[in-house]
Amino acid sequence: MIHAPNRPWRGVLVATALPLRDDHSIDYDRYAEHCAWLVANGCDGVVPNGSLGEYQVLTPEERARVVETAVTAIGGARVMPGVAAYGSAEARRWAEQAAAAGCASVMLLPPNAYRADERAVLAHYAEVARAGLPVVAYNNPVDTKVDLVPELLARLHGEGLVHAVKEFSGDVRRAYRIAELAPDLDLLTGADDVLLELAVAGAKGWVAGYPNALPRASVELYRAATAGDLATALPLYRQLHPLLRWDSRVEFVQAIKLSMDIVGRYGGPVRPPRVPLPPEQEAAVRAATEKAVAAGLG
After folding, report:
1. By the 8 A CB rule, do 95 and 83 touch?
2. In this structure, are residues 77 and 47 in contact, taking their beta carbons and an 8 Å threshold?
3. Measuring CA to CA, how many Å separate 201 from each of 14, 107, 118, 180, 278?
4. What HEC string does 121-158 produce?
5. pLDDT at residue 153 greater than cutoff 50
6. How far apart are CA 135 and CA 127, in angstroms?
7. Residue 70 CB contacts under 8 Å (≥ 6 apart), including other chains
8. 79 labelled ligand-binding
9. Does the active-site annotation cover 138?
10. If you count DSSP H runs as helices and E runs as strands, how many of each does the chain have, helices first?
11. How far apart are CA 233 and CA 27, in angstroms?
12. DSSP structure class, residue 119
């Protein structure tokens, strides 16, 4: 466990999948158990209300209770909620809710209702920073159409608005540019399938998807990769990569929940408009998961 109290986003923070019953209601007891199980299996914390947690289709009451459930289960220092919203005022309210629940940091996408320019991005992060919790930026230009390029991240960090970035662009070259422009800005791996590359480049954390199903193997991979132990990390990475790459696909929520079901956890259904995987994708995820389990990675 390398959880850093002054930088609570460091280490392996799992973007938690949300257990839904067959009627699509949230099983909060099962979610609390899942958060506790992840920490018991070596993960450093959780990130509720991220994309993997299907936050976009939760009611405000559900979204708040998810955060409170995670905090009760593992303590607020280990909970970094996603606070993304279409409006800056709403995102700030979610950050304030996180603070009231006892969380130590929050994760924030740029404005995602339209292709915001740099001035709008800066104003958005400034507004949410006023809630008083450290903000981790989340760069996902594929989904948001707003790219937090290294120069913009350096400006956000220089103005004290963000302390770290979850990097999901897939461009591992950015790690070196970010380190040059903002050496005190913590880089967090945001896509499972570039973990090794970004760890070697100096990542201080991993906002992770597949530990929902395979926490022990994932933590072992992260620890080895960040320690520079490539003799351990590379073979493990090769074994896990057929699964890790699903984290960067449109169907990542369904894939990770299916893997959870296969390994004996509870993944469960997804909320519409998401739909179950088609047969060929289900077969691919099932085969890759069963192979990982057979290799002792479950």
Report:
1. yes
2. no
3. 21, 22, 27, 12, 36
4. HHHHHHHHHCCCCCEEEEECHHHHCCCCCHHHHHHHHH
5. yes
6. 11
7. 16, 31, 32, 35, 46, 48, 79, 81
8. no
9. yes
10. 12, 7
11. 35
12. H
Q: Which residue has the tokens 């963000």?
A: 162
Per-residue pLDDT tens over the stretch 56-105:
999 999 999 999 999 999 999 999 999 999 999 999 999 999 999 999 99
Catalytic hit among 138, 210, 222, 237:
138
**Strands laid side by side in the 45-47 sheet:** 45-47, 11-15, 205-208, 186-189, 164-167, 135-139, 106-108
- Put residue 202 in one of left, alpha, beta given phi > 0 → left and psi -120 to 50 → alpha: left
Asked if 166 is an active-site residue, the reply is yes
Which residue, among 267, 264, 283, 165, has the nearest Cα to 209 in the 3D structure? Answer: 267
Look at residues 62, 38, 36, 34 and name the one whose alpha carbon lies nearest to residue 49.
62
**Whether residue 3 has pLDDT greater than 90:** no
For residue 189, the SS3 value is strand
CA distance 283 to 292: 14
Q: How far is CA 119 from CA 106, 167, 227, in A?
A: 21, 21, 38
Contact 281, 251 (CB under 8 A): yes
Among residues 265, 207, 264, 167, the alpha carbon closest in space to that of 44 is found at: 207
